[in-house]
Design a protein that fits this description.
Strand content of chain B: under 5%
Number of helices of chain B: 13
Order of helices and strands of chain B: HHHHHHHHEEHHHHH
Distance between the termini of chain B: 62 Å
Shape of chain B: globular
Low-confidence stretches of chain A: 80-133, 142-146
Mean pLDDT of chain A: 74
Helix content of chain A: 55-70%
Number of strands of chain B: 2
Distance between the termini of chain A: 23 Å
Structural class of chain A: mainly alpha
Number of domains of chain A: 2
Structural class of chain B: mainly alpha
Radius of gyration of chain B: 22 Å
Strand order of the largest sheet of chain A: 1-2
Helix content of chain B: 55-70%
Shape of chain A: globular
Largest sheet of chain A: 2 strands, parallel
Mean pLDDT of chain B: 80
Order of helices and strands of chain A: HHHHHHEHHHHHE
Oligomer: heterodimer
């Protein structure tokens, strides 16, 4: 499926939404704090079901839900980078496990599962934070990204996915969405061919690696407590994707990160991985 | 101590209120200092005391969202409550906000994309459509005696009667038709020979199309998360508590159904 197919589908789906005439949801439109309680599973029936209907049928309520989710993500990103000394996410169960146990759809608390998780994570962390404002690229070597790189189409697309992941993590952390020297980072992964699930999996993996790399670079910059789960996840991704020919450029520092057993080795490997990923900004497809 | 105290007295939070004002709406006011004070006053003395969450974990997100609502209300009050074109209203928020940020705040599309957290291609499409259809309110070229910053004054816009918020008497079917034409043709590179002719033919098939396109609550939420918020299947799964493969399966079935329905009723698409 190419981009114009994607656009066509998106337009048809937007048109479907524009034609939609849902029945009014029951009860009053929820206030922001009621919506907040509902997301954490704190609203009893039958009101919880009514709020679920408002979220699904009233774009204004859906928007408030989205804004609360975004704000929670900001806090979560903030906690991931700035709270190395209080109780951290490693003390909490893995999010996916929690989500599976909270999994439900249109049964109360509707749509609330993930955010109940985040709210409880907030309890586990135990403090409320301010948005962080450190500089991700402090002490960055200017020369690390210099020069134009000749790459194949596939490799350029893979590096792009890594950069998109970096950008996403920076957005979650409310940081400027730029690389070193103010270079803009891409915001969209290049689509894979029809039914090429291996490609989709590879690019999703690289996106995650980009996010992990930014988080970990931050730990290095701020001298935060080491998070073994990040290194473990980088190693898992390496085991799945590391042999791909189009990822050869990233392989050495990726392996070094997965195998690092001290802070200096780990931070050097992450820096090198980011530097190699950032070469995608100067990639020239041959 | 009340949970509210830290959001009222903490210096960092007061700084955050100011920064957020400047970042989001600072350019919209002739006198941003006054407007910022008004926003913070509303937050501290009206909105925060009115919040009564049952659970108090991780309240920062609730406070941030509440304050962003205060800023939005302040801007709308200040600018005479102009309303987005019906085509954007039919799709709903946050698409309608693109209108306010582009036409009222004169914000570049990249910044709109970042502020609303929407994909840049989607924002650009709507901005181009607003420009092509000349949908932004006209600005009256007045001269300020106080020599205000030319980027700042926003009160000089002429908001026509039909651009003010007035939910009463809206012709839903006409709005749906306009939205269909805008989305299916105005946002793409294809341009129909005649929008009038197209509108007439769409009007005839509209009842059947709507009857065939009935959406469930789950469908609506999936569509909004995927095609407006641009969330990946794994993010949708996280937001809804569904499993990723369930999201993929339902999403695929839904877009097939929507595609088939449009093709059946509009074979020329």
């Amino acid at each position: 499926m190419n981009t114009s197919d994607d656009d066509r589908i998106r337009h048809l789906c937007l048109a479907a939404l524009a034609l939609d005439e849902p029945a009014p949801a029951g009860g009053e439109r929820p206030s922001l704090d009621e919506l907040w309680d509902w997301m954490a599973g704190q609203v009893p029936e039958p009101r919880a079901t009514q709020i679920g209907e408002h979220v699904a049928r009233d774009p204004r309520v859906h928007e408030q839900w989205r804004e609360l989710r975004d704000a929670l993500e900001e806090d979560q990103a903030s906690s991931a980078v700035s709270d190395g000394h209080s109780r951290t996410e490693r003390d909490a169960p893995r999010r996916t496990g929690w989500l599976e146990s909270l999994s439900r759809w249109l049964s109360p608390p509707v749509y609330g599962g993930a955010f109940a998780t985040v709210a409880v994570l907030g309890i586990a962390i135990g403090v409320a934070r301010q948005p962080p404002e450190p500089d991700l690229w402090q002490d960055w070597q200017v020369l690390k990204t210099s020069g134009v790189l000749e790459v194949q189409q596939d490799e350029a697309a893979e590096l792009n996915a890594f950069l998109v992941g970096m950008r996403e993590q920076m957005r979650l952390m409310t940081l400027p969405l730029t690389g070193p020297q103010g270079r803009r980072l891409p915001d969209r992964i290049e689509p894979c061919g029809d039914s090429d699930t291996a490609c989709v999996q590879r690019r999703e993996g690289l996106r995650e690696l980009g996010r992990l790399s930014v988080l970990s670079r931050f730990d290095c910059v701020l001298d935060n407590e080491w998070r073994p789960e990040r290194q473990r996840r980088a190693a898992e991704l390496l085991a799945v994707l590391g042999e791909q020919g189009s990822l050869a450029r990233l392989r050495a520092p990726w392996q070094a990160w997965a195998a690092a057993d001290d802070t200096i080795a780990r931070c050097n490997a992450i820096d090198e991985l980011l530097a190699r990923g950032l070469t995608g900004l100067d990639a020239h497809v041959s | 101590m009340s949970w509210r105290q830290r959001y009222i007295e903490n210096r960092q939070w007061l700084d955050w209120y100011r920064r957020e004002f400047k970042f989001r709406v600072g350019r919209s006011f002739d006198d941003p200092d006054d407007a910022c004070s008004a926003a913070i006053e509303t937050m501290l003395f009206e909105k925060l005391p009115a919040l009564e969450p049952r659970h108090q974990a991780n309240l920062d997100a609730l406070v941030r969202t509440t304050y962003r609502n205060v800023l939005r209300d302040l801007v709308r009050e200040h600018h005479g409550r102009p309303r987005a074109p019906v085509e954007m209203q039919r799709v709903g928020e946050p698409i309608a906000q693109i209108y306010f940020l582009h036409c009222i705040h004169r914000m570049p599309s990249q910044l709109i994309s970042e502020q609303l957290r929407l994909p840049s291609t989607s924002v650009l499409e709507w901005v181009n459509w607003l420009k092509a259809k000349n949908k932004c309110p006209k600005r009256t070229p007045t001269v300020s005696l106080s020599g205000a910053d030319p980027d700042a004054p926003m009160r000089e816009m002429e908001i026509r009667g039909d651009e003010r918020e007035d939910p009463v008497g809206e012709d839903v079917e006409q709005a749906q038709l306009s939205a269909l034409v805008a989305i299916l043709f105005g946002l793409s590179d294809e341009s129909p020979a005649s929008e009038t002719t197209l509108g007439e033919s769409l009007r005839q098939i509209l009842p059947r199309l709507k009857a065939a396109l009935v959406l469930s609550d789950e469908d609506r939420t999936l569509l909004r998360l995927r095609f407006i918020e641009d969330r990946s299947p794994s993010q949708i799964a996280e937001a809804t508590g569904m499993k990723v493969h369930t999201v993929r399966r339902r999403h695929t079935a839904l877009i097939e159904r929507i595609g088939d329905t449009f093709r059946q009723h509009l074979p020329d698409l």
